[in-house]
Amino acid sequence: MSSPDIELRPARRTLIRAGLVAGLSLALAGCFRPVYAPEASSAKGEAGPVAVNLKRVDVTPIEGRVGLKMRNELIFLLRGGDAAGPIAYRLDVALSQRGQSPIVDPFTGQPETRTVSLTADYILKPAGRLDPIIKGQEFATASYNYSLQRFADIRAQRDAEDRAAQQIAEKIRTRLQGYFATGR
């Protein structure tokens, strides 16, 4: 019995593994920091630095109906419905749109579905300065069913454009949250 190979029972082996997993989980839990967490020195109920900085972003007007929808969505996502406070950053967004008909009915030659593709190039700058802090590009697509009824087709296209604009606004907000949380 002087062999260094000690055979562990299956129950004991499982218990050791569970203990290791629990220990590693506790060790890694200390590395997690919520994005909207307030600073340790701030008062209870006060917004954290990420939320405060997001509210200080001014979104410049974006051309077109879809641009207006995206701007309104960005303002709501960044400020949460609060009134504009002191502006520290300016967000410029350039939007381009493209449409396709990927599926065509072989008997009628009419498209069955259409796809709207939006691309947004954005730049975050400090207010009153020209040097950019963040430059990026976001892309979103949304499909809709083509209808022979003109109003239904226009409404479906607008719905698809609005969905794509909302997706891009959420992606831009996420990127800004990351910057304000990490400084990168």
The first-to-last residue Cα distance is 59 Å
Beta-strand share of residues:
25-35%
- The tally of strands reads 4
> Biggest β-sheet: count, sense, barrel?
4 strands, mixed
In N-to-C order, the SSE pattern is: HHEHEEEH
Unreliable residue stretches: none
Total tally of structural domains:
1
- CATH C-level: Alpha Beta
Looking at CATH, the homologous superfamily is Lipoprotein like domain
The portion of residues assigned to helices is 40-55%
Number of helices: 4
Supply Rg.
25 Å
Commentary on this structure:
The protein is built from 4 helices and 4 strands, in the order ααβαβββα. It has 184 residues and is of the alpha+beta class. It has a single domain (49-179), classed as Double Stranded RNA Binding Domain (2-Layer Sandwich), CATH 3.30.160. A 4-stranded mixed sheet has the order 1-2-3-4. Helix 2 packs across helix 4 (150-182) and helix 3 (64-79) crosses helix 4 (150-182). The radius of gyration is 25 Å and the shape is flat. The model has no long low-confidence stretch (mean pLDDT 87). One of its GO terms (biological process) is Gram-negative-bacterium-type cell outer membrane assembly. InterPro entries: LPS_assembly_LptE, TAT_signal. It comes from Methylopila turkensis. One of its GO terms (cellular component) is outer membrane. This is LPS-assembly lipoprotein.
